[in-house]
Amino acid sequence: MKTTIKICLAAAALFLVTSATTANAQQKSGYINSVELLQAMPEMDSINKKLESYSAELEAEFNALLQEFQTKYQDYQAKASTMSDILRKQREKELNDMQVRLEGYRESSNQLLSEEQSKLVNPVIEKVKAALEKIGKDNNLLVIYDLSIGSLVYHNTAAMVDVLPLAKKALGITK
């Protein structure tokens, strides 16, 4: 429900921005494909190599744990018929615990990789944002749209109207 409202308000704001752009012929809009820009940045080659290396380390660790699990499982299968019930249950519990650890490791390694990616890429994204803001100001642009994500990456707040208070009033929202 909140997402639908946000989308409607964003569409209304986009309509108002488009109307304002049409009404004021001196102001122009710009667009960019930020994915293409990021791919062209020299820093991204180094970042991608670091992420690939880190991912390979995490994968190697996972594979070592997986190999240990598979070895113990094969040993269990080979000896299960001759084990006592107590020993068989103990080995089954040990294998189940290892399987849970493997799943946990996979999840945490994905999170670690995502955090490392953010740590490495966020400074580049901030650099791009700063450049786009400067471009927008220097070229007297009203807005810059990012075609790769379908959103605004820059807007000239001095030349635009914040319609949030108007929308709240129209909808009878007092807070």
Describe the structure.
By secondary structure, this protein is mainly alpha-helical. Helix content is 73%, strand content 9%. The protein is built from 5 helices and 3 strands, in the order H-E-H-H-H-E-E-H. The protein has helices at residues 2-23, 34-40, 42-79, 85-138, 164-170; strands at 28-32, 141-146, 151-155. A 3-stranded mixed sheet has the order 1-2-3. Strand 2 and strand 3 (151-155) form a beta hairpin. Helix 3 packs antiparallel against helix 4.
Task: Summarize the entry for a quick read.
By secondary structure, the protein is mainly α. 3% of the residues are buried. It is 73% helix and 9% strand.
Strand content: 5-15%
Strand order within the widest beta sheet: 1-2-3
Total number of helical segments? 5
Shape: elongated
